Amino acid sequence: GLGDVYKRQASSNVRLLKKHMEPGDLVFHAEVRGSPAVLLKGGASDESEVVQAATFCASYSRAWREGLGSVSVYYVRPEQVSFTPPPGTYLEKGSFVVKPPKNYLIAELKLAIGLTGDGRVVSGHPDYVRSVADAYVVLRPGRKPARELVAELLREVERAWGTRPDEEVASQLVALIPYGIGEVVELKVSRRATGEEQGGSGS
Questions:
Q1: pLDDT digits (tens, 9 = 90+) for 179-191
Q2: Residue 143, C-beta contacts closer than 8 angstroms, at least 6 positions apart
Q3: How many angstroms separate the CA atoms of 201 and 141, rounded?
Q4: Does the N terminus or the C terminus of the chain have fewer Cβ atoms within 10 A?
Q5: DSSP strands (E only) in 119-190
Q6: How far, in Å, CA of 118 to CA of 134, rounded?
Q7: What secondary structure letter does DSSP report for 41?
Q8: pLDDT at 201 > cutoff 60
Q9: For residue 118, how many other CB atoms are within 10 A of its CB?
Q10: DSSP-derived 3-state class of residue 141
Q11: Are residues 198 and 189 in contact, defined by beta-carbon separation less than 8 angstroms?
């Protein structure tokens, strides 16, 4: 389920799948050259988990860098994935073959990063991050540098919590932003003691 999702950049897709893929999983891949593979371990318990995994996959694809709002993503079962090309054909290094049928959906590019009350860094689909984080920002493709996006979140955290996370936490958050760029859609910080919230949205 969504508590155990693996992703890799395209160059190591085969390594990811060979190491972690098991019967019952779902394999996601965006219809964009250079897409990462995403494994949803144990499959999906409902449709919302399929949508969240597809959104996660789309957001870490090159579609984010290109500023697209959505992209087609397919998912298949492990038995449909092969690392051996059909006879007489060539398979590029790092590629794999998918046997039909593929299940398609259109995934919106959006991603959330944030912090739990004890300072743990979290990331993923906005619905998931909202459910576990005490401070978070929802992002979409844009041109603002990741450092500035994270600084915006951490300023609100410092204002609400009275303390600013250290540079290591900031660097972890920056590393989670696809291609180091984005745009703020929503920002919210809960006051840990009272439950009050600071909130806003990007322009």
A1: 999 999 999 999 7
A2: 67, 181, 183
A3: 15
A4: C
A5: 121-124, 135-145, 181-190
A6: 9
A7: T
A8: no
A9: 7
A10: strand
A11: yes
Instruction: Give pTM, 2 decimals.
Output: 0.86
Angle, helix 167-175 to helix 146-161, in steps of 10 degrees: 130
Answer yes or no: are the C-beta atoms of 136 and 170 closer than 8 Å: no
Three-state DSSP at 170 gives helix
- The DSSP secondary structure of 72-130, one letter per residue, reads EEEEE-GGGEESSPPTT----TT--EEPSPPEEEEEE--EEEEE-TT--EEEE-HHHHH
The two three-digit tokens of residue 31, written as one number: 């219809």
Lookup: tokens for 103: 């299940």
Tokens of 129: 């991050």
Ramachandran class of 69: left when φ > 0, alpha when ψ lies in -120 to 50, beta otherwise? alpha
| H or E element in which residue 9 lies | none
Tell me the per-residue pLDDT of 19-59, one tens digit each, with 9 for 90 and over.
889 999 999 999 998 788 999 999 999 999 999 999 999 99
Q: Take residue 82 and report the two structure tokens written for it.
A: 């092969």
Q: Give the amino acid at 44.
A: A
Check residue 200 and give its pLDDT.
59
Q: Are 156 and 135 in contact (CB under 8 A)?
A: yes
Question: What's the rounded Cα separation, in Å, for the pair 135 and 156?
Answer: 9
Residue where the block lists tokens 């693996």: 6
